[in-house]
Amino acid sequence: QxxxxxxxxxxxxxxxxxxxxxxxxxxxxxxxxxYCLVSYHPKLYKSVTWGPFxxxxxHEYVLEKYLRKEAGSVLFAIFxxxxxxxxxxxxxEGAAGTLAGALGYINSSPxxxxxxxxxxxxxxxxxxxxxxxxxxxxxxxxxxxxxxxLAFPGLGLRRVAxxxxxxxxxxxxLAERLRFQREVVRSKKVPPEGKGAExxxxxxxxxxxxxxQCLGRDSVLLSLCWDDWEGGAREQVDTAMARKAQ
Length: 246
Description:
- By secondary structure, the protein is of the alpha+beta class.
- Helices cover 27% and strands 24% of the residues.
- Strands 1-2-3-4-5-6-8-7 form an eight-stranded mixed beta sheet, sandwiched between helices.
- Helix 1 packs across helix 2 and helix 3 runs antiparallel to helix 5 (226-242).
- It starts with 14 loop residues before the first strand and ends with a helix.
């Protein structure tokens, strides 16, 4: 029986190029391996409002409740095809390469023909390489290409958003390199208790705030729309995907 991703758009299982492959993430199949890898790198959670997780059960619960069961969200595992599997099962059964991270679509809307690229996590050995630009680029092609596109048929969406912490400079640079345009900086999220100055905006709260122990987070909202995509952004994204790491 096919796995139910419960996503509002068709989930493609052929999102790959010569460098990376995106595999739809099955929580209770891929979750344990992903947790083991990410748990070795707690700094990955430095600029985000979620994680780290105390154990595998909590990690799987969060993925299941807030991603898999949300019709607007779907997660993909990123495999680096330029690094062959280790041959000891650590890259996942049938993998085309080495597991390098994860990302997905979130806050998707068939009514408004839009989505957001989020939950991007790239493991440290694969940062500042081709992995992030190629993984995001593949999701952009699938989201913004028209269904009639000959080489890479897509969903024909009109807008892809990118929301990140104002202090997460690498995330902002990646988005802008892939032709996302800044729209606004706003105070949008309240990080959970325990997330310190590295996540918050550091601004004092007013007296009587219901969550006074949790400072606010300033988020940068960027977007890439279909007209910019068709007007040259697609080719610039392809150039960024083909670029060799320095």
